[in-house]
From TrEMBL:
Binding site for glyoxylate: Y54, Y160, R195, H300, R303
Record organism: Microbacterium bovistercoris
Record's protein name: Alpha-hydroxy-acid oxidizing protein
Ranges where the FMN hydroxy acid dehydrogenase domain occurs: 28-405
PANTHER family given in the database record: 2-HYDROXYACID OXIDASE 1, S -2-HYDROXY-ACID OXIDASE-RELATED
Family label: Belongs to the FMN-dependent alpha-hydroxy acid dehydrogenase family.
GO MF entry, a single one: FMN binding
Record-annotated active site: H300
Listed cofactors: FMN
Residues holding FMN: P107, T108, G109, S136, Q158, T186, K276, S298, G354, R355
Gene3D superfamilies with a match to the protein in the record: Aldolase class I
């Protein structure tokens, strides 16, 4: 028999905890987001369909992106026990400078289309968190504007070698003059990938007002208010070169770029240079031998060649082939701090986040990007503690295995 009694008022009072309501709607919304996927849900609600799909989508059947995310989900961690880790150190030394966390912000084009604060929000949040920010050639804030938003932190510049080479050389000189310390030379876009969502949405820059976009705009008035009352959306660093957005975009893709271009850019660039978009072991070794400072294993977030290799799967073999003294970074599919920890364990020196940052931006501008970084930081720290490591250097391949649903059949696929 259960004994029953009348509750005492003092006991009831102890149970009642009324929190002060949060009056700042943006903060309330962002605080409720516990994962990057939560930020994505908010972003979808607040951003016009065409802009959200441009960000969220990938090429063709979007298999590369789905597989990359799946590969991270298939990680199995192997914790050590009874290894005290009262504090964790998440800082790393990368390309000659510090980063408070093992990830930086990846270059993305058209960023102010997602939310009007765009790159300024990204660079400001990166500065506050002590991590690097990368500006795209197709950025919507100028090189100098990013420098102003992150005057003391690390800025990196991503270069597309344009058909008119002089434009790229000029951008390289400008980024160097503004104190950017690393150049990312992107090599996975000889032609544009087929983004089918954009075709279906009739996506255009600037957005066209059709009946569909007007209906879609009704529940998203703030995005339109921002869009209509802030400076024109343009490729800010390229605007002085003339040409429409379409022409400039077309000119950014050149199927003739080669190692010869890499040599020219290296001579122009005083800082570190990394090649972004490397997708096999042979190219990784060749680039190391060519003397670049590092590589980014990436398939451009699945936005170029669909069914491209999963960068996370390439990582252990690339690390083995290039040895320990060469910088290997990775991106594509990172949605959780644990993905970053697993990458470091398998040999990555650093990682980049694309959409995770943009979901935060669309969910709440600068505060949203702060939230993205905070979520990833918490996940990284917690995963490290649960694994029993107190610094990133302690992570090793033995901490990670993979459930084998998607492992390539033979090495021959990766080593040509
Ligand atoms: C909307 C969007 C625009 C992008 N624009 C560029 C770009 O201009 N230059 C570039 O090198 N990579 C670009 N990328 C690729 C990212 O730098 C990065 O490789 C990719 O987003 C990583 O995958 P994730 O989004 O799953 O993190 C873009 C990615 C997205 C999502």
């Amino acid at each position: 028999m259960v004994q029953r009694q009348l509750p005492k008022p003092a006991e009831l009072f102890e149970l009642m905890q009324f929190k002060k309501p949060e009056l700042d709607g943006r903060k309330r919304r962002l605080d409720a987001a516990l994962t990057i996927y939560d930020l994505r849900t908010i972003a979808k609600r607040r951003t016009p369909k065409a802009a959200f799909d441009y960000t969220d989508g990938a090429a063709e059947g979007e298999l590369s992106l789905a597989r990359a995310r799946q590969a991270f989900e298939d990680v199995e961690f192997h914790p050590g026990i009874l290894k005290p880790a009262p504090t964790v150190d998440t800082s790393v030394e990368i390309l000659g400078g510090p980063s408070a966390l093992p990830f930086g912000i990846a270059p993305t084009g058209f960023t102010r289309l997602m939310q009007t604060e765009g790159e300024v929000a990204g660079a400001g949040a990166a500065a506050a968190a002590g991590i690097p920010f990368t500006l795209s050639t197709l950025g919507t804030t100028s090189i100098e504007g990013v420098k102003a938003a992150n005057p003391h932190g690390r800025n990196w510049f991503q270069l597309y070698v344009m058909r008119d080479r002089e434009i790229s050389y000029e951008l390289t000189r400008r980024a160097a003059a503004a104190g950017f310390d690393t150049l990312h030379f992107t090599v996975d876009t000889p032609v544009a990938g087929a983004r089918l969502r954009d075709k279906r949405n009739g996506f255009s820059i600037p957005p066209q007002l059709t009946l569909g976009t007007i209906v879609n705009a009704i529940p998203r008035p703030w995005w339109w208010y921002d869009f209509l009352t802030t400076p024109k959306l343009e490729f800010a660093s390229l605007s002085t070169t003339g040409g429409t957005v379409g022409e400039l975009l077309d000119a950014a893709m050149d199927p003739t770029i080669s190692y010869a271009d890499l040599d020219v850019i290296r001579d122009l660039w005083p800082g570190k240079i990394v090649v972004k978009g490397v997708q096999n072991v042979e190219d990784s070794v060749r680039l190391k031998d060519a003397g670049v400072d590092g590589i980014v294993l990436s398939n451009h977030g699945g936005r170029q060649l669909d069914r491209a290799p999963i960068p996370f799967h390439l990582l252990p073999q690339v690390r083995k082939a290039v040895g320990d003294d060469f910088t290997v970074m990775i991106d594509t599919g990172i949605m959780n701090g644990a993905d970053i920890v697993a990458s470091v364990a398998l040999g990555a020196d650093f990682t980049l986040i694309g959409r995770a940052y943009l979901y935060g931006l669309m969910a709440g501008g600068r505060q949203g990007v702060d939230r993205t970084i905070a979520i990833l930081r918490t996940e990284i720290e917690r995963t490290m503690r649960l694994l029993g490591v107190s610094s990133l250097a302690e992570l090793e391949p033995a901490h990670v295995t993979q459930l084998t649903r998607m492992v390539p059949l033979g090495e021959s696929i990766l080593v040509r």
